[in-house]
Amino acid sequence: MKTLMPSLLLLAMGAAQATPIAMEDQSQLKVPGVQAAPQFVPPAESAIPDNAFGKMVREGHALFVDTRRLMPEAVGNGLNCSNCHLDQGRLFHSAPLWGAYPMYPAYRKKNDKVNTFAERIQGCFSFSMNGKPPAADSPQMTALSVYAYWLSTQAPTGVEIAGRGYPEVPKPKDGYDFKRGEQVYDEQCAICHGGNGEGQKVAGDYVMPPLWGKDSYNWGAGMHRINTAASFIKYNMPLGKPGSLSDQQAWDVAAWINRHERPQDPRLVEGSIEKTRLKFHANDGVNLYGQKVDGVLIGQGIGG
Amino acid sequence: MKPLSHVVIGSLLILAWPSAHAADGQKIFNQGGQNPAAMACLGCHGPDGKGIAAAGFPRLAGLPAGYLSKQLQDFRSGSRKQAVMEPLAKALDDAEIEAISAYLAKLPADPAPDTRRQQIATNPVARLALYGDWSRKIPGCVQCHGPGGSGVGEHFPPLAGQPAGYLVAQLNAWRDGSRSNDPNQLMVDVAKAMTDAEVKAVADYFAQPASQEAKP
Question: Can you name a GO cellular component term (chain B) (predicted)?
Fold first, then answer.
């Protein structure tokens, strides 16, 4: 554990780009608003070769869409990779794997080293999945990397392809409003994600992912940023109706979701929310960690 | 105090009994409602409530009570149009709707097939059912209706065990506007984005568990 934690910290701090204190980002580089129509088309499933490589593609795909069930030792909450990367990691504006894989390995200023794609995925497990990342040379990590590589077939390397990440949604000039966000949530989100963000299960397994509480992403995940969640929501939610919410609605509902408690940031500094806020959250986009909302300190953590 | 509480409980039972008795789900299912126009469910939906596939009469057994009562209310209001069910639902009072819905929800149903999304689907029908077609903003059916079409919560009914004819009729009802009672219009756009061939194929997929190729 002693050797593991510092390396996790390094990984976690690695994605800083725009600001020196920014933590693990969903993307290596800032994703601007939609400028160009996505052109890249990942290969069809029917193109998977019938050989050892193809077998690994299939294994990676299975882990990607059914992560929690297949990797219970690595996933500490109720989420699958495919909850935040829609259409099995294929969909543009939904942080597609073909937009991420070709950007690695990449130098990261904060830990002053070149990070591999596997190290980037490990960040997902630590934060978005609130779990314990598999080793970089583990069969699972290889399978996930192979799946991402295959989806990126014929994509240029080191080029920001249109459709990558979640496009930035500009912050409304009057900011966001929790009350309005709650209303959007109740009207458009609760039907799937539950009135208390708890998600919905069938036979013990989540079908619709929990958005807050002990089984959701933790306070270190990129999605805890209101700006990132607003981007994801605007371009991907409600499922099947991307783009149906206004920018204002996306920000309002993202703020409502991200004012709720979730598992603690695993990088918690000396047990202090304030120290953790200063070190990891103060310059990390728009987030509520360590701040008071209606007199209640946000970021106290919940569960496990 | 003891005698008083006995009196209170006794009178509560007396008060509660007649109304509970008036709307007896099992009786409505087997014999119909108080209004003779509310015919017994089993006549069309089968003695076990599992539907009659050949006629396209849907399975009701094991569907969520909230979903069933909403459908009956929607037949009354006209947001779900169906020539046989509309007058029938109008002949049921609110208490009867609650009672029959609760009764049907408890009837045993066959479990949905344990289909997972893990296996890459090359068959276009399985692909649509499991993953959808995002170029047309169609989510995979199971993403809302649960693994194998099990149904999720009160708003996303089971597809498994429903006759293909019924599923085709519903998809077409959304397409032609005769059914418009989907919460947040979640189904209408999906149904309109599908082709006739896909409607047929995906209905068969869920009606016949044996045709599902992807297995855990």
Answer: periplasmic space
Nearest CB among A48, A87, A207 relative to B120 is that of A48
Asked whether the predicted pLDDT for residue A173 surpasses 70, the reply is yes
Superfamily of domain B2-106: Cytochrome c-like domain (1.10.760.10)
Domains B2-106 and B124-211 share a fold: yes
Query: Is B117 near chain A, with CB under 8 Å?
Result: yes
Asked if B150's CB is within 8 angstroms of A202's CB, the reply is yes
Q: A-chain residues within 8 Å CB-CB of B155?
A: 191-192
Q: Are A62 and B118 inside 8 Å of each other by CB?
A: yes
pLDDT confidence of B64, banded at 50, 70, 90? very high
Question: What percent of chain A has a predicted confidence (pLDDT) above 70?
Answer: 88
User: Could you give the CA distance from residue A244 to residue A236 in angstroms, rounded to a whole number?
Assistant: 9
> Does B124 reach chain A within 8 Å, measured CB to CB?
no
Question: What pLDDT, on the 0 to 100 scale, is given for residue B109?
Answer: 93
The residue type found at A158 is: G
CB atoms inside a 10 Å sphere around CB A171? 16
DSSP assigned state of A279:
I
Nearest CA among A80, A99, A105, A82 for reference residue A38: A99
Q: How far is B109 from chain A (nearest CA, A)?
A: 15
Which of A71, A187, A191 should we substitute to test contact with B (largest number of B Cβ atoms within 10 Å)?
A191
Average pLDDT over residues A53-81: 97
Buried b (16+ CB within 10 A) or exposed e, B91-124: bbeeebbbbbbebbbebebeebbebbbbbbbebe
Give the one of A82, A90, A188 whose C-beta lies nearest to B184's C-beta. A188
* Between B106 and A110, residue with greater pLDDT: B106
User: CB of B92 within 8 A of CB of B72?
Assistant: yes
Q: Under CATH, which number does the domain B124-211 receive?
A: 1.10.760.10
User: Does B121 sit within 8 Å of A45, measured CB to CB?
Assistant: yes
Mean pLDDT of A79-84: 98
Here the ipTM equals: 0.86
Sort B212 into a burial class: Cβ within 10 Å, 0-12 / 13-18 / 19+: buried
Domain boundaries, chain B: 2-106, 124-211
Domain A4-151: CATH architecture, name and number where available: Orthogonal Bundle (1.10)
Q: What is the pLDDT of residue A24?
A: 45
Sequence spans of domains, chain A: 4-151, 178-297
Please name the residue of chain A whose CA is at the shortest distance from the CA of residue B123. A46
Q: What is the 3-state secondary structure (H, E, C) of A111-145?
A: CCEEECHHHHHHHHHHCCCCCCCCCCCCHHHHHHH
Q: Name the CATH topology of A178-297.
A: Cytochrome Bc1 Complex; Chain D, domain 2 (1.10.760)
Q: pTM of this prediction? A: 0.88
- Closest B-chain CA to A65: B118
